[in-house]
Amino acid sequence: MTLRPNRRAFLMGATAAVAASALTFRPKRALAATTLTLGHGAAPGNPRTVAAQAFADMVAERTAGEVVINVAGSEQLGSDVSMLTSMRTGALDLTANSQGAASGLVPEIAALGLPFLFRDAAQAHQVLEGPIGAALAEKFAGVGLIALDWWDNGIRHTTNSQKSIETPADFGGLKIRTPADPVTVDIFQTLGAATQQVPFGELYIALQQGVVDGQENPLANIASAKLFEVNRFITLTGHQWQSTPFLMSRFAEGKVTPEQLEIIKATAKEAGVLQRKLMADADGTLLAEFKANADLVVNEPDRTPFQEATAGVIDKYRGESYGEFVDQVVDAAGAS
After folding, report:
1. How many Å apart are CA 225 and CA 200, to the nearest integer?
2. What's the pLDDT tens digit per position in 94-129?
3. How many degrees, rounded to 5, is the angle at CA 19 between CA 13 and CA 21?
4. I need a surface site. Which of 222, 242, 250, 298 has the fewest CB within 10 A?
5. Which residues, 6 or more positions from 185, have their beta carbon under 8 angstroms from its beta carbon?
6. Torsion over CA of 93, 98, 103 and 105, rounded to 10 degrees?
7. Closest to 124 in 3D by CA, of 285, 241, 292
8. Sign of the CA dihedral 221, 190, 165, 238?
9. What's the rounded Cα separation, in Å, for the pair 121 and 276?
10. Do residues 21 and 14 lie in contact, with contact meaning Cβ atoms separated by under 8 Å?
11. Could you tell me the pTM of the whole model?
């Protein structure tokens, strides 16, 4: 039996958000249409994909067609790392990117992915709505990028083709694909796995061909990329949360009027609300579907041993040059 995840929750949310939007902005004067490009790496049906298109549609409506945003997903414009490079050269205008890739420019953002820091995405977003998010936005501005919003890349879980993961020792001998994120690499190497970086767009084939045994992602990504077809063991490790920084290039800022820029900023926030809702809805829906699929094995181990085994990862990042920021994130998570 092949599982076909129900994406109705994704699409209904997007339709409702666009239909319910009562606030319409208009620039003060008519201008020739400006075309911007938004790149991301998510597959069709993913909350990131749905929200990105909703964002583009709302911007076009609210600027009366004066700003047109072309959306290119599924790594059509390259990996997350290469898209960030394109943003800094002006070749790409916007991206819903990944925390791991972004940490190459702003190392502090990696602190959000410390192991078992957040119990859920709502707690993480609460932290990002405060001084932590403001500090990160300032860091991104320093490398020529505008942080429009913090979208959700979910609480992350592990899949593999070999066995259920019940204890940290079960990771021994497994090859796990991770994104280009230093914290994630450290988590899995600490648990005893070998790690390898594979572009997300190539991950299905890498799993299918046995280049790697497993990977880690939120359930929405596992479903939209159909990774469950080549990894039948799904373990709800919940080992970290990651953001999807939604960024705009400073070059793109110069292509639009101040009024249009304010529309883009406000609409990015509204699309973020939609994206986070779709991610939350997907967790419950997809988990039920995965558990109902007789071809899959879904388990939820006691996380305490995993948390204890990876505690040293937090200590390691406290020793980095941005260790003070790490402490601030840990304190904010504990207070939220």
Report:
1. 9
2. 999 999 999 999 999 999 999 999 999 999 999 999
3. 100
4. 250
5. 178, 195, 197
6. -10
7. 241
8. negative
9. 8
10. no
11. 0.88
